[in-house]
Amino acid sequence: MTETAPRPTLEAVAALAGVSRATVSRVVNGGDGVREPLVQRVRRAVEELGYVPNRAARSLVTRRHDAVAVVIAEPEARVFADPFFGLQLRGISKELTAHDSQLVLLLTEGRDDHARVARYLAGGHVDGALVFSLHLDDPLPGLIRGAGVPTVFGGRPGWSDASGSSVYVDCDNRGGASAAVRHLVGLGRTRIAHITGALDQTSAVDRLDGFRDVMGDTDPRLIVESDFTPAGGERAMRELLDRSPDVDAVFAANDLTASGALRVLRERGRRVPEDVAVIGFDDMLPVAEQTDPPLTTVRQDIEEIGRLMANLLLTGLDRGHREEPAPDAPPGVILPTTLVHRGSA
After folding, report:
1. pTM to 2 decimals?
2. Can the peptide bond before residue 273 be classed as cis, meaning omega within 30 degrees of 0?
3. Mean pLDDT (whole number) for 312-332
4. ω into residue 293 within 30 of 0, thus cis?
5. Distance of alpha carbon 179 from alpha carbon 214, whole angstroms
6. Torsion of CA 208, 193, 84, 122, to 10 degrees
7. How far apart are CA 177 and CA 163, in angstroms?
């Protein structure tokens, strides 16, 4: 067996710094009332000894757990198959790490998991929650509000009891969709179709509205509902070609949907972009740069959305606004989108 050296104690830090144990405790656990010269002495002693503060003791002083729950309202298989969630989690993780806070990932396989998530949040394990990929009939927002934890949502709130003060981060879904369709019109395309996302999510609704902002009362056969997945894009593209074989452009609700549509167009012998131009949404590089041809798409900064969600939550906690946003902060932050031109349109 390998013997391990004993861990440095508060008493050892206090002795080296020449201060009391109580002074060391206040410094390392985030308390106030210690003069700056003493703070610096304690910090030098902590570094020299390699002292690691006890998180439980720190929590008693600060009433913070240095942990944030990330709740994704999707099954595990979807979360780990879709690079969108990985990008958003990367942004969240970077911001939490920069603030020495831990990420606790909570997934919901079905409605039975919602009560479990709510119980965990209400149990005082985390300082707040970041919640995204909600559906319009999802009970999670009400359960989370009942748990009483500060929350930032990813995506525009659209559930029936949404509070006007709900803090959220989203991209300009409607404006980005309109820009994509205007580009297709500018290419001279006249039979422009839209493969939607899941219409129980506000992002899909906003992108459909953006399509209609340009196309008006288009032929209803040119709009097919899908679900943000490659398989859904394949099904929708087959349906489009069967009922509207003269389609000459497709705006897909996300890159995964577009990738499925491209596969079906290739199977059916349609050239892209010569016969049918295709535009996606998200600009997820593992998808958009590897389709054939590379995908023209609307870029949203997915990682930045995650980072900003975490930043808004941590900033609110630091200010002490545990239920409401800061008075000078808008409840919703909408990030811009840009059209990225590649080979498909």
Report:
1. 0.79
2. yes
3. 65
4. yes
5. 9
6. 30
7. 26
